[in-house]
Amino acid sequence: MQEVLNKKNVEKRILAPRESRDTIGRINVSNPRMICRDVNVYYGDKQAIRNVSIDIGCNEVLAMIGPSGCGKSTFLRCLNRMNDTIDNCRVTGEILFDDKDIYDSSIDVVPLRAQIGMVFQKPNPFPKTIYENVAWAPRIHGIIESKSDADEIVETSLQKAGLWGEVKDRLDQPGNGLSGGQQQRLCIARAIAVSPEVILMDEPCSALDPIATAKIEDLIEELRTQYTIAIVTHSMQQASRVSQRTAFFHLGDLIEVGATEAIFTKPSHQLTEDYITGRYG
Amino acid sequence: MIKSTKKSVVGSSASSGRIKAIDIVNKGLKRRYRKEKRFRLYGMLSILASVAFLAFLLTSIVFNGYSAFLQTYIKLDVPLEAGMIDKQEPGRSDFQGIIKSAIRSYYPEVTERQDKRELYALFSSGAAFQLRDTVLSNPPEEGTTLSLWVLADDDVDMLMKGHMKRDVPEGSRRLNDKQLRWIERLEADKRVEKRFNTTFFSAGDSREPELAGIWGAVKGSIYTMLVTLALSFPIGICAAVYLEEFAPKNLATDFIEVNINNLAAVPSIVFGLLGLAVFLNFFGMPRSTPLVGGIVLMLMTLPTIIIASRAALKAVPPSIREAALGVGSSKLQVVASHVLPLALPGMLTGTIIGMAQALGETAPLLMIGMVAFIVDIPGGFTDPAAVMPVQIYLWADSPERAFVERTSAAIMVLLAFLISMNAVAVVMRKRFERRW
Question: Residue A119's beta-bridge partner residues?
Answer without folding.
Answer: A201
